[in-house]
Amino acid sequence: MPKSPMSRSRTLFGRSQETSLVTVDRAIAEFRAARPVLLRDGVNMALALSAELADADLAQRLDELARGRAHLILSAARLRRLGAKGRSETGILAMPTLDLARIETLALKIDAKVDAPVAPAGPLDEAAIELARLSLVLPATILVPVAADEIAGEPLVEVTIQAINAYRGEQVASLAIVGRAPVPLEGAPETEFVVFRGGEGLRDQVAIIVGKPDLDAAVPVRLHSACLTGDLFGSLKCDCGDQLRETVQWMAENEGGILLYLDQEGRGNGISNKMRAYRLQSQGWDTYDADEVLGFDLDQRHFDFAATMLKQLGVTSVTALTNNPLKIGAIKAAGLEVAATQRVLGRPNVHNVRYLASKRDRAGHFIDMDALMARAAPTD
To answer: Around 216, how many Cα atoms within 13 Å sit in the side-chain half-sphere?
Structure first.
């Protein structure tokens, strides 16, 4: 098995030479644990803290340190929902005091409005929002500029903005197979699971090789983003579980194929934000509008690492089993040939028909609603 650049640089007990990856991993862990992370851009430094995870005690201590210098960073999507029409870039709002009630309102409340001038974000701000996205929390971050003497002796994880901004690319470059084994499935007994470390998200990625696809021809491939509610529990709000199981069945009944099961819950927003969006949908919001209320754009996912997985499996040409043009574009951009495409139909129901129509109308998915509804119609 070929080793990744990252694995080649490790010693048995020493620290990895790939310090940027390791440091960002630690920063993500700190950020998700509601502890401030020290961001550095040359001589400029700031403490970044997740807006949704800040508690009263920590906010008070940061407020004393900030002395009026703190600000709240919000994504362009959230600012548009707050009334900043046409906003296409991250922005910041001054926080003379760290008022948690105000922060919660600006970051999360449905009917909130901008209550102060929005200033452009700087490099530290952009990196802080990227750290929030990598950590799968709301893209809303408290930033407190600091000097070195103000934090001397504090047990902080420090990370450069260059390391944060390069992290996704480094994750792709470090992608490596860490385990594989045959796993017979119902209806697809000749199946192998191949586990990759790296890529995107906070867990490993999995390639499910069904049958024995011909790697010298166009291999049927589906990029499937993990969906706990649909894949495992059979949620009626989406068509993910249907697409997953029917794709594997189709591959087993034909000449095989590869399904990549990717850690991208909730279009890359994470399970907690997916549940927040589901709650908004239960109140009448469209799936994409619900995400925008939370500060997310149409789709946060990246698929370059999926193409790297396919290359490591020996795939050069694919028949893409998808309705999503973003996936097709990403495979092509990564240098793989898309010889053909094939639609993947789920089953419409009263709970997911609006969701399916939204994917077609808002995100350009190739979904034939007439064909779906015919599939759902009772047969004689």
So the answer is: 0
CB atoms < 10 A from the CB of 332, how many? 14
> Residue 266 belongs to what H/E stretch?
helix 265-268
Closest CA relative to residue 360, chosen from 342, 375, 338, 345: 345
User: Which residue is it, tokens 């390639």?
Assistant: 207
378 pLDDT band (50/70/90 cuts)?
low
How far is residue 188's CA from residue 112's CA, in Å, rounded to a whole number? 50
Q: Tell me how many degrees the CA angle 171-177-178 measures, rounded to the nearest 5.
A: 105
Query: What tokens appear for 115 in the block?
Result: 């209550």
Q: How far is CA 53 from CA 39, 49, 56, in A?
A: 18, 8, 10
Q: What is the DSSP string of 280-322?
A: HHHTT--HHHHHHHTT--S-----HHHHHHHHHTT--EEEEE-
CA angle 358, 305, 199 (to 5 degrees): 100
Token pair in block for residue 374: 């015919």
Are 137 and 35 in contact, with CB atoms under 8 Å apart? no
CA distances from 101 to 36, 73, 237 (A): 19, 16, 32
Question: Which residues, in sequence order, are CB contacts of 279 under 8 Å at separation 6+?
Answer: none
The pLDDT of residue 14 is above 60: no
Q: What is the pLDDT of residues 124-137, one digit of tens each?
A: 999 999 999 999 99
What is the set of active-site residues? 299, 301
257 DSSP assignment = E
Percent share of the chain, pLDDT over 70: 93
DSSP 229-240: IIIIT--SS-SH
Higher-pLDDT residue of 367, 315: 315
Which helix (H) or strand (E) segment holds residue 64: the answer is helix 56-66
10 SS3 class: coil
pLDDT at 230 (0 to 100): 96
Integer Cα distance of 368 and 375 in angstroms = 11
Q: What is the mean pLDDT of residues 198-215?
A: 93
Secondary structure of the chain: what % helix, strand, coil (to 5)? Answer: 40, 20, 40
At 315, phi and psi to the nearest 5? -90, 135
Q: Which amino acid is at 101?
A: A
* DSSP-derived secondary structure for 19-76: HHHHHHHHHHHHHHTT--EEEEETTEEEEEEETTT--HHHHHHHHHHHTT--EEEE-H
Q: Report, as an integer, the average pLDDT of 145-167.
A: 96
